User: Fold these one by one.
Assistant:
Number 1:
Amino acid sequence: MGEINVTPLVDVMLVLLIIFMVAAPMMSTGVEVDLPQTRAPRMEMDEEKMILSIDIDQKVYLGETEVPADRLEEALLNNARIQEDDEIYVRADANVPYGFVLRVFTIIRQAGVEKLGLVTDPAGGAATVPGEGEEQ
């Protein structure tokens, strides 16, 4: 019996695979928002692009950093990646008042950002960008 028993190795690998499958979706989002559900066709979201999130409490986050709404334009103007790409994706909670989201869009425009993508949740799936680069 000079054979190596690989059963324990396979068991450990399967456990690790399950752990990574469960943990991976939790690492992809920074700010918890309940995205509006749509029936838009799925488009892949570029992981390198800046994401602006608006949560249920109307708090605005640039990436994972909270930015007061009255200082948002300044933060956008001082962000090198946004100024270089001239593009931003907006993730807003479905329960945030429409007027507040429009005020944020106005601030984004005043900061000189020309390309604005809206992130939605296609019927409970992963976040998508239905109108990447749409002019608002």
Number 2:
Amino acid sequence: MPLYFEATHTGVQPGDLDGNQGRGRYLFVPGSDSRARKMADRFDDVVVRPSGRGHTLYLGTLPGDAGPVDVGVISTGMGAPSAEIILTELLHMGGRRFMRVGTCGSLQPERVLPGELVVALAAVRDESTSLRYAPPEVPSVGDLLAVRALEAACADLGLGHHVGMVHSKDAFWAREFGHGPLRAEHAAYLQMLTDNGVLATEMEVSVLYTLAACFDQQVRAQGQRVRAGAVVMVIGEPSAYDDRDAEIAAHTEGLIEAALAAAVRWDALERA
């Protein structure tokens, strides 16, 4: 499999993803372009690579103790199939460090509360896209350096957070909200996840972690590593908020701050 090819769905160009002494840019991969733009607003020295499909790549730097940290952000869209397209293009174009920055629903509503963050140690692979790369027996696990950096960043910022398993699904309305004739099956499945300690449900972490593991294996012969982490913010039901839009916006600021701080910490851990 070639390591480089022409990206057709993103604006990425050869060399865009290089940096950080050969480790590559730390790439934030939120689901939405609006969150990507908000993150890029915090970068220094911003360069924009437009995409006709709404997956615009924003490149820049963040200040670090040892000098600027090369970063980038691009939306993956919603769900594992869209994420697989974008992530695969980034991987082929040299992307080696990834951090999902997204949203989720709580599977432990008594202790994992709206506005809190979940650092994904691993993901339940309840979607079919990652199954095109590995059978279900192969776990989907995040990079421990990324997890450590995210947990420390959340703690330093005083943000409510949890570290553990998340659930990645491929049917938003059916699986999580019981739409359709299989509602009883979906409810029983989610209860099983709750009973097994899974913290939250979202749609992209499992394919990110699976792709990272596959490509990591491919590039080790070149002395490279692919690493990935994820942090997701709990979105509650409308009744969970006094002012839903304002509270979600405020919590999103915390999510972004945690992700940016974690990237700088992650870079420091890799330099050590």
